[in-house]
Write a structure and sequence with these properties.
alpha/beta, 6 strands, 10% strand
Length: 308
């Protein structure tokens, strides 16, 4: 980390072709950090920078950005979205939460509902869970047995096929101006236990509690193995995965904000150039304002809008 609080976020990036095991990745802040300085100085500055970059992205309306958030239960996806993205212009930021597929969604291919949720050019789309549920949850609970996919397509190569399909789809998006950034919030089993207990003990958080969260803990090791496999197979240069420590919420949000900021920096959006006519009109308005000639300003406004 440098003196301005900037982290080398490549430490959390999974390089293409690398086989990983989540147990080798830290779940807690793994850098010497001044927590209060991050919360009061560095993080607010990152949010200001993000706000400017998002405004440019929206105004330029050329690129769109897709942020995928995946995690175990209680890893902090909702809080991360709230703290990192709520400061941006809501006109250009759209959050989609993918839950259990509806009957209509099951009548289509597994990517159908994802395609429907893609952002427009100029927008940031945030996926709270995503198409990756169909290579994780589906396998943990053997849901493919109840899927409508033709049975002759359900074979030993099914999951490798889906990895290929997902990689091809994300490359297609990248090549059409919609880069995909994927973030896995890596929480420890102990920290998850404490957060789930808090949902039970704290009445203000009771609404978050679900028995399914407790039941899913039985599959912890299987989830960790499948997430490791999934990330290893689908982290690409054009659509990388970042494994971000999630035990310290303040640090998680700080890292995620920097990942998004760097992605937008690489897109390098710019405010559109004004036409020569508009520039001349603005210059005339500026001259009149400085001279205090309010009447002439209103007259010019009438002329300008009449022409429109």
């Amino acid at each position: 980390m440098d003196k301005d609080g900037i982290i080398n976020i490549d430490r959390y990036k999974v390089e293409q072709g690398k086989t990983i095991h989540l147990k080798d990745y830290s779940t807690a802040c793994d850098l010497p950090m001044d927590k209060e300085k991050v919360k009061t100085v560095y993080f607010p500055q990152i949010l200001e920078d993000l706000s400017v970059l998002q405004a440019k992205l929206y105004a330029q309306s050329t690129y769109g950005l897709i942020i995928v958030l995946q995690a175990m239960d209680a890893a902090g996806k909702d809080g991360t979205i709230r703290h990192v993205f709520s400061h941006l212009d809501p006109n250009g930021v759209h959050v989609v939460s993918f839950k259990q597929p509806s009957t209509e969604e099951k009548d289509h291919d597994y990517m159908w509902r994802i395609n429907k949720a893609l952002p427009r050019r100029g927008d940031i789309g945030i996926f709270n869970r995503s198409h990756y549920e169909d290579v994780i949850i589906t396998r943990v609970h053997d849901l493919i047995a109840h899927d409508k996919i033709p049975k002759d397509l359900v074979n030993k190569d099914l999951w490798d096929t889906r990895y290929r399909q997902i990689n091809d789809w994300e490359k297609y998006l990248y090549e059409n101006g919609f880069p995909v950034v994927k973030i896995f919030l890596h929480v420890s089993k102990d920290e998850q236990r404490d957060r789930l207990a808090e949902r039970i003990l704290n009445k203000k958080k009771n609404w978050k509690f679900s028995m399914s969260d407790i039941n899913e803990r039985r599959y912890w090791d299987k989830y960790q193995d499948l997430y490791s496999e999934m990330i290893s197979n689908t982290s690409k240069k054009y659509a990388p995965w970042y494994v971000v420590p999630a035990d310290n919420k303040w640090y998680t949000r700080f890292v995620v904000a920097q990942i998004v900021e760097r992605t937008l920096d690489r897109i390098a959006p710019k405010f559109p150039e004004m036409s020569k006519e508009v520039k001349n009109q603005l210059e005339e308005f500026r001259r009149l304002i400085e001279s205090g000639n309010v009447g002439m300003i209103e007259e010019m406004q009438d002329m300008f809008f009449d022409k429109k």
